[in-house]
Amino acid sequence: MLWFQGNSMQFANYSFKLFLRNLSASRTVLPVLTLFTKDPCPLCDEAKEVLEPYKNREVDITLPENSAWYERYKFDIPVFHLNGQFLMMHRVNISKLEKQLQKLEQQGTGS
């Protein structure tokens, strides 16, 4: 599992921006990264800080309308979904995120 430090974060930020530019150029719908969280959650706060440049959607599982997500993830936050599908939990795994984003890009371009 890769955790962000120094140049790794800069590289991840550059890679994601390049990916988004390529998707925009191909008129593909941008992927949605969803973070399931609750308060307090130091790991969630850390993940939000790292992922701020990519912020798309956040679901507070403690809200009444999200009770199903609370039952599912109350002991596993933060949890990340990409386009509605489970991606990872607990820590940001940038290599896994980038791999999935590359798959989406290839699907979008018909490669």
UniProtKB/TrEMBL annotation:
It comes from the Eukaryota. The lineage of its organism: Eukaryota, Metazoa, Chordata, Craniata, Vertebrata. Transmembrane segments: none annotated. InterPro entries: Glutaredoxin-like, Glutaredoxin-like_YDR286C, Thioredoxin-like_sf. It comes from Pipistrellus kuhlii (Kuhl's pipistrelle). Keywords: Electron transport, Transport. The keyword DNA-binding does not apply. Belongs to the glutaredoxin family. Pfam families: Glrx-like. This is Glutaredoxin-like protein.
